[in-house]
């Protein structure tokens, strides 16, 4: 049995010619999707190192709350968790919530500092308050936490260290 598939330009389907039953053709398509096809998608990806963004000067106010988030990350570490902390602050400087990573002590893999902060703040404060607030995090929020921050409408995020470092 022989199946020949001919790739077309990127983003379009490929054509197959075959003298074999449909089941064999489907199997060849499945193999093609998991091997050859993927290698073509990534042929232009560079292995060059990613340059870390330059450090940015922050205001004294931001530095104060960022230090608070970093202190919470120490609390997390002392309790056997990964060292991440988060603080949500209103524009007038009122600390709305403080949280740290708790997945080591709870076994909940979603108990990241930022997600915990959002979980605590969302039922307590209206969206308008959160939209004007700033979340300070000891580290760059992961994708899950970034989603929680987005859906909570928190207006601004300041973090201490990015994922590259």
Secondary-structure topology with pairs:
Layout: E1 3-6, E2 15-18, H1 22-34, H2 36-41, H3 60-78, E3 85-89, E4 95-100, H4 103-106, H5 113-121, H6 127-132, E5 134-139, H7 143-152, E6 156-161
Parallel strand pairs: 5-6
Antiparallel strand pairs: 1-2, 3-4, 3-5
Helix pairs in contact: 5-7
How is this structure best described in words?
The chain has helices at 22-34, 36-41, 60-78, 103-106, 113-121, 127-132, 143-152, and strands spanning 3-6, 15-18, 85-89, 95-100, 134-139, 156-161. With 165 residues, it is an alpha+beta fold. The protein folds into 2 domains: 3-41, no CATH class; 60-161, Cytidine Deaminase, domain 2. α5 (113-121) runs parallel beside α7. The longest helix has 19 residues, at 60-78. Residues 1-20 and 31-45 have low confidence and may be disordered.
List keywords for this structure.
2 domains, 19% strand, alpha+beta, two-stranded antiparallel ribbon, 7 helices, Cytidine Deaminase, domain 2
CATH class of the largest domain: Alpha Beta
CATH superfamily heading of the largest domain: Cytidine Deaminase, domain 2
CATH topology of the largest domain, by name, is Cytidine Deaminase, domain 2
CATH architecture of the largest domain: 3-Layer(aba) Sandwich
Helix content: 40-55%
Q: Write down the overall mean pLDDT.
A: 79
The number of distinct structural domains comes to 2
Proportion of residues in β-strands: 15-25%
Total E-strand runs: 6
What is the end-to-end distance?
52 Å
The quaternary state of the protein chains shown equals single chain
- Secondary-structure element order, as H and E? EEHHHEEHHHEHE
**Main β-sheet, spatial strand arrangement:** 4-3-5-6
Q: Specify the overall morphology.
A: globular
Structural class: alpha+beta
């Amino acid at each position: 049995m022989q199946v020949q598939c001919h790739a077309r330009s990127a983003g379009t389907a490929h054509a197959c010619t075959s003298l074999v039953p449909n089941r064999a053709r489907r199997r060849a398509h499945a193999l093609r999707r998991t091997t050859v096809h993927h290698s073509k998608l990534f042929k232009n990806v560079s292995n060059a190192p990613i340059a870390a963004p330059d450090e940015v000067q922050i205001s004294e106010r931001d530095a104060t709350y960022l230090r608070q988030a970093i202190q919470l990350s120490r609390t997390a570490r002392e309790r056997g968790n990964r060292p991440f902390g988060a603080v949500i602050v209103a524009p007038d400087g009122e600390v709305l919530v403080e949280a740290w990573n708790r997945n080591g002590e709870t076994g909940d893999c979603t108990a990241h500092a930022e997600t915990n902060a959002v979980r605590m703040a969302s039922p307590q404060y209206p969206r308008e308050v959160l939209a004007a607030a700033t979340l300070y995090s000891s580290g760059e929020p992961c994708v899950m936490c970034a989603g929680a921050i987005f859906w909570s409408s928190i207006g601004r995020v300041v973090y201490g260290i990015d994922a590259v470092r």
